[in-house]
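Supplementary Methods S3. Complex input for the nicotinamide-adenine-dinucleotide-bound model.
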Amino acid sequence: MDTGLAGRTAIVCGASAGIGLGCAEALAGEGANVVMFARRAEVLEREAERLGAVPVAGDLRSAADLERLVATAVERFGGVDVLVLNSGGPPRTGSFEFSDEQLVDAVDLLLRSSIRLVRLCRPYLEASGRGRVIAITSSAVKEPIETLALSSAVRPGLVGWLKTASRELGPRGVTVNSVAPGRIDTERIREVYPDGPGEADLAAIPLRRLGTPREIGDVVCFLASDRAAYVTGTAIGVDGGLLRGTQ
Ligand code: NAD
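Predicted complex, serialized as structure tokens:
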């Protein structure tokens, strides 16, 4: 399958580890120019060197860092064709266990940073003619999780905004989609299963295993490719069949 991604420029956020790194690997494997953004400069630089990508160290919550990220992609490669929105997740808490500050932080990290980045990239995505926005969210956007109340509250807001943006950007040739992972084998999931997932945890997943970051990266790569030119405004679950609903 020719993805048409060779020579296109992709920004991947939260790219030093886990799902973001899996996305950067998949896109670099297709010959895209990848610009990797995350906070930890040392690990980011090491992974970027391995993939032949450009590292930009910074924090998604900083408007100035986001401007520097987009400016770097434009200086190095002349534009932005693909934007992968991703970060760490908010703290795990029940519905009444987070502070106002944690609520504002979650909105800042998950929603505000995404809207800011799409705004900054918009002229380049439109100029691309094949612009792509792909957000990594969570299965919580389809089935809220009690122990992840902040994620369950804020991420559906992002999916709602992406849907409105998809309607406005569609006529300009830009597609906007999101990918909702189930249980993926990264550092973050090790907080949930410090000793690895138990039998009952895996029994809840029809495919009977955790997903890999690369399996998310491969779906992101498809959405970024020419092959997905008619897919927009969708939220695609990649969860081994975990969720029981039909949507
Ligand atoms: P992770 O913690 O393994 O990796 C997160 C990446 O984002 C790292 O590169 C980290 O450096 C970077 N990052 C975190 N905060 C940042 C910030 N403020 N600015 C810039 N970079 C930042 O997480 P993961 O498991 O790869 O998950 C990625 C996203 O997917 C998270 O939002 C997570 O909640 C969500 N998710 C994960 C799973 C799973 O099973 N792993 C399931 C559903 C949803």
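The chain has a mean pLDDT of 97. The two ends are 27 Å apart (CA to CA).
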